[in-house]
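Budget justification note: compute hours in this period were largely spent on complex prediction jobs such as the one shown. Inputs:
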Amino acid sequence: MKARVGVVGAGTYGSVLINAYYGAHRRGEIELAAIADINPDTLKAMDEKYGLKGYTDYREMFDKEKLDAVAVVTPDFLHEEVVLEAARRKLHIIVQKPLSTDIGEGRHMIEAAKENRVMLYVDFHKRFDPAHIQLRNAIKSGKLGEIEYGYVCMEDKILVPSQWFKNWAQNSSPAWFIGIHFYDLIYWLLGEKPVRVYSSGVKKKLVSMGIDTYDSLQSKFEFANGASITVDASWILPNSFSSIVNQQIRLVGTEVFRR
Ligand SMILES: NC(=O)c1ccc[n+]([C@@H]2O[C@H](COP(=O)([O-])OP(=O)(O)OC[C@H]3O[C@@H](n4cnc5c(N)ncnc54)[C@H](O)[C@@H]3O)[C@@H](O)[C@H]2O)c1
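Corresponding output:
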């Protein structure tokens, strides 16, 4: 049986997911039933492109579409309401990172998914990058020995918070929007949570542009065996930078990696 899937939020990233789901629909892997977005113009554009039924109220979509699963692609700080409603209706859920920008809200969502026995998956797609899978396998098989330290950066051009998300960048941060990808990836690669985290950030450039959030956050994660990994997350790279995003991970272990 094919899963009937709906999407809530058809903005910058929602439209990427809808395009991918539409491909899966055409290949007969899922049934992309409908989408919901509060913006009628967005729904009109999606209808013109994919012939998809649209709802301005996601609850109405849940009422009418007999969905099995839903993808939640609303802004970072607006996931909870949709996720709780979906869980209440026994829909399986894939939600964009970060699950939430509030720990309490995150816990509510996890509890609701458990209570209603539905899957709640946060879309940490860095776990599916072949280079990261190779790195994880190398760590797990002991080819790098014991990881001692490492460095990660993930940085967006300033057009992301100042133009793409200028309405809600102040409700997020480079940690929630970008850093979270690698905070999760480190956990997934090493298979353990840090015992201590230090973090500091700078608010300057975006505040000067009227957007009250951090420009950058520098964090250090320490693990039980003494290893530590530093993560720089920022979204103020100049718009002249050659790509939207710049990212890097390097880990140093006690052994030399040989294939
Ligand atoms: N995995 C990734 O690499 C990746 C990349 C970009 C964004 N994201 C995540 O995707 C989420 C959405 O980001 P975006 O870039 O698409 O933002 P966006 O602002 O471009 O789009 C959000 C959309 O949600 C709609 N919306 C808001 N409230 C709604 C509601 N109650 N019901 C229905 N629709 C509603 C808005 O009208 C808008 O179309 C964020 O959590 C973001 O962090 C993930």
